[in-house]
Write a structure and sequence with these properties.
The structure is a single chain. The protein is mainly α and about 170 residues long. The chain has one domain. The protein is about 75% helix and about 0% strand. Helix 1 packs antiparallel against helix 2, helix 1 runs antiparallel to helix 4 and helix 2 runs antiparallel to helix 3.
């Protein structure tokens, strides 16, 4: 009788420890999603700043400058709901200028274009890391144990943004 009570108690403690380990793993994934988004957000803010510098360059015509400036400010100031549309608009505006390297206006500093190219590559890597972290967290949260025992607590479900598919 006592052995069975001890065995059941041990099994319950072991199961509780397992649930705690799963919750810790999910918490670490949520942290990874948040840090990857913070890094990606910083890169996107830098891209908007470079876009503003390009828009103010001497070689850019007034209409393109106006469109690029508006898109850059919209991307910098957009809230989380409007962020995807703003980033897509900025990407499209930048494509107006850098779509063809042969037709890039001569007044634009080549260092700005090189910085934009390098930053675009970093953004692509940042998007890959962010989407992988979101997918991992969503997959883990989809498991039956996480739903039954509410191991995610009150944390919001991590999400991807539509601009992540369309960015440069």
């Amino acid at each position: 009788m006592i052995k069975s009570i001890i065995a059941i108690s041990f099994a319950l403690v072991l199961f509780g420890w397992y649930l705690s380990a799963l919750a810790s793993r999910l918490d670490a994934l949520h942290h990874r999603v948040e840090t990857s988004w913070a890094h990606l957000d910083a890169l996107l803010q830098k891209r908007a700043a470079i876009a503003l510098e390009i828009a103010l360059s001497k070689g850019v015509d007034a209409a393109t400058s106006l469109v690029l400036t508006a898109a850059a400010y919209q991307a910098r100031e957009a809230n989380i709901v409007e962020r995807s549309d703003a980033e897509i608009a900025l990407s499209q505006s930048l494509e107006l200028i850098i779509a063809d390297e042969a037709s890039v206006p001569s007044g634009i500093d080549t260092n700005l274009l090189e910085s934009l190219k390098l930053l675009t590559e970093k953004i692509a890597v940042g998007i890959t890391i962010h989407t992988e972290a979101v997918s991992s967290a969503q997959n883990l949260r989809g498991r039956i144990l996480f739903r039954i025992f509410r191991l995610a607590g009150h944390a919001p479900l991590p999400m991807r943004y539509s601009f992540e598919d369309d960015i440069l």
